[in-house]
Amino acid sequence: MAGTQEIAQMAHLMRRAGFGASRDELERLVAQGYEETVEQLIDPPAQIPRADLHQLFRYMPSLETGGPVTVPGAANWLYHLVNTQRPLEEKMALFWHGIFAVGNSKVDNDNHLIAMVDMFRDHGTGNYRDLLIMLAQSPAMIYWLDNHENHKRSPNENWGRELLELFSMGVGNYTEKDVFECARAFTGWTLGPKIPRVPNHRFFFQFEYRPEEHDFGEKEFLGRTGNFDGLDIIDIILEEDACPRFIARHLYTFFVADEPQVPAWDIEPPRDPKAIDFLAGVFKDSNYEIKPVLRALFNSDFFKESAFQKVKSPVETVVSTLRLTEDMFGPQPALIELGQESAHMGQSLHNPPSVEGWSTGPNWINSGAVVGRINFVADRVSNTELPGVQKICQRVAAANGTSMTPDEMVDHCLDQFGPLDVSEATRMELIEHASEDGDISWSEDYDGSSERVGEMLALIAATTEYQFG
Amino acid sequence: MLTTTVAGRTWHFDHSIGHFVGPQGYTYPTPIAMTAGGTMYVADIGLAEYSGAGGLGSKIYKHRIEDEFLGEMGVGDLKWPEGLALARDGSVWCADAFHHRIFGYDAEGSPIGDWGEFGDGNGQFNRPSGIVFDADDNLHVVDSLNHRVQQFTRDGEFLGSWGAQGSDEGQLNHPWGISIDHEGALYLADWGNDRVQKFAPDGEFLVRFGSRYEDFDDGGSLKRPADVAVDSVGDVYVCDWGNRRVQIYYPDGDIICSLQGDAHEFSKAAQQVMEVNMEYAQAFRRVNPVELIKFGIFDRPRGIAIDGQDRIAISDGGRGRVQVYHKDHDYLVPQFNA
Lengths: 469, 338
What we know:
The complex is a heterodimer.
Chain A: H1 4-17, H2 23-32, H3 34-42, H4 53-59, H5 71-83, H6 87-99, H7 104-107, H8 110-123, H9 128-136, H10 139-144, H11 158-165, H12 176-185, E1 189-192, E2 206-209, E3 219-221, E4 224-226, H13 230-239, H14 242-255, H15 273-285, H16 290-298, H17 301-304, H18 314-325, H19 334-338, H20 341-344, H21 367-381, H22 387-398, E5 403-404, H23 406-416, H24 424-435, E6 440-441, H25 446-461
Antiparallel strand pairs in A: 1-2, 3-4, 5-6
Helix pairs in contact in A: 1-2, 5-8, 5-18, 6-8, 8-9, 9-13, 11-12, 14-15, 15-16, 18-21, 21-25, 22-25, 23-24, 23-25
Chain B: E1 3-6, E2 9-17, E3 29-34, E4 39-44, E5 59-64, E6 68-73, E7 81-86, E8 92-96, E9 101-105, E10 111-115, E11 128-133, E12 139-143, E13 148-152, E14 158-162, E15 178-180, E16 186-190, E17 195-199, E18 205-210, E19 227-230, E20 236-240, E21 245-249, E22 255-259, H1 268-275, H2 278-286, H3 289-292, E23 301-306, E24 311-316, E25 321-328, H4 334-337
Antiparallel strand pairs in B: 1-2, 2-25, 3-4, 4-5, 5-6, 7-8, 8-9, 9-10, 11-12, 12-13, 13-14, 15-16, 16-17, 17-18, 19-20, 20-21, 21-22, 23-24, 24-25
């Protein structure tokens, strides 16, 4: 059997690079080895499947294309998140969705948000340059940042500014002149008119390059001069040291430990500058391939030592719970309501609050959201009819003979529900509650004992410690 | 009128019916059943899973194939209508995959019974899908997640079953639609195996439709086929759901041709919608004619039925409409091309 430390480290990896794992899975992965598991997450073999979309669209066709609201699209993504066996692909899709933040509140064509997330899923661990080019030509992004209104005679700076400020380098690494010249280089990158949604449902916009709209004049950008177009601009950005550092800090924030929000990055230094230097170096040396920097990150000491230093995002909270309870695999009508749960906690998929994405870390916690988080998790993990909860109960029951004391039950629950480290004060509170009904006897009352375990899991879900991942 | 002429056969596109969401519209039309005289029943999966869906829940529409709306049924009963069949007395039967149950209605839509429950025992279902009545008025039910076909009397008395999960000849993987020919042979859309299989009434394998060659593409491949129908001379039509087209095969399994969808003009109902939505009509005029071709093609063709005159109704699931073709047996092309 795997040691406690190994299980804890594997659980940390699977929380961060995925959405948690059952104890059975953790033990299998520990036997497989940490580095091999990292490899499998980053570069999963072809036989490890994504979620089966054909199954979903057969029974729930409305989830294939979105509309003016994000409800179908969020359910579509939740299906991926819960059913995939390639969790890092989904984690990276979430990562890029938070950086290249596009909202259907403006786009109003959620099929394009679905397509954009598909792009992140397909290419999110590929090459960053490729991703930037696809992003610049993505109909959702073009519409979101008004590049269809970026004309030779009247440049619109919205896309050009955010490309520099939020998608590649960050404030302080370019001038207003660079923003304007960047916008000029992307003139003519636009959308063709599409067939309207009335009367026969949604059709897709297509990227269209219109040379008559493009400014072919000379431009000065980041100290270079030439007749640059959008591709040249992206290549120049990639030559700047600020670019790999910017993405490295995002990776650190998303996978390692909470950092200040992006607008503060030009005044707040990283909490671990050496880690950022290391990741940025790997990223640039690999010619902006994303897999090498992920490999370096997950195998680093600073990652391994970062357990429970991040507040779980609402999506992580919802998805890890649904994967744990194991009752939402396959097409399920409940996905439609459940797809909105993270929105109730402050993270509406396909609808980030602005182009800056979500405010993360401690900002996920407020008086409304924390109640929503706790209630959602507690409701589900206390339901001992759900297959995943039954498995936890079986493991707790098998841990210590046919009976156990309240403190033993608390420790086994903390172990099986994580394993989760809690303060001694928290542990004593949990034991105090468990002691109200005395010792547990699995042999005399299995169902009643299971309910006590479910109740304890719900209480653990309400602890401060459980909000960290 | 658009025609497809291959091998002495001609398919004319006639018209489309309905539009996406709203009066006289569909949401996601699924299986179709049709009388010999052209009265169509079209199931629609609707948006019942969404709160506030109102009248957009799952139901069955009754139409004349010439595009005359006759009524609806099943409102409130159905959630995932996966199969439709007409009994000898004209009653309408629907397999609901969510409820694991068969619902029956008379021709006017009044409920006349429902039966079935979840499970893998005899007479139980796990996502029942395509259904069809045979000449004895017994119902063959595709029991999709149990990978088998079960037979029942019209009132739900279990008669027998055959089929097993697998990819070998005669085995099934998440089968979907089903049809029957005048000799009683059964055709199954073997969804997970990307093929259609023809069986004798007792389940003996007879013919395979779909990709039959590993080293070259004869154009006959299928990707997640949804439904199947047979015309008066035995040509076999398959809703190639994953490839968004309809494949037509000779009875022996060789491919004849594909229909890609030809509804380039608005249906009668869609025309009415556009007349009161002038901004969309204007938006249509801005679209590049090359791009506009996409308007007519199938998006997830889901159900197919053929009447006694070889009029072919195809539910165009993702586009919220039904496309109607007819097959012409005596059409002479050359005289008009002189």
